[in-house]
thioredoxin-dependent peroxiredoxin (Saliphagus infecundisoli), 178 residues
Amino acid sequence: MTPDAAEGEIDYTHPELEAEQTPLQPGTEAPDFTLPTTPDQAVTLSNFRGQPVILAFYPADWSPVCGDQMGLYNEFLSEFRDYNAQLFGLSVDGVWSHDAFEADRNLHFPLLADFEPKGEVARAYGVYRDEPGTAERALFVIDAEGVVQWSYVSPVGVNPGVDGILDALEELPSEENQ
């Protein structure tokens, strides 16, 4: 924890983050975006106003930790849906890689391709890693009004699990969870 961080606050610093990059903090309006989910379909974040959204940035399709993380979220989709939350996975991989990865892992939620311009959305959320050219392993829970209510950056080699997401969803006003 940094010396300036108050007790009970989450320390969002991470040695692998570029100095100018800071993940979006709770209370920040989530930047809108439109990203492809298939070669001929796209998702626009603002179209999901009125319900919570979970953004799960991850470094790359096909890496062992990413596969485990996305597979775990797939197993918890019904719990996320209990909160009326929409889950999106985001990486800098292209739609064809996502298509094959989704099919191989039998995923039932959209993977969004932050491919061109590479990492533009990850940069907007403060979670792009310049050196390898990938996104951090970062999570954001956005409320029905489009405001970040929780964010977390995990070490790249560590699956952050679902507890933080579920806790953040639980903290949302109850009318959002219906």
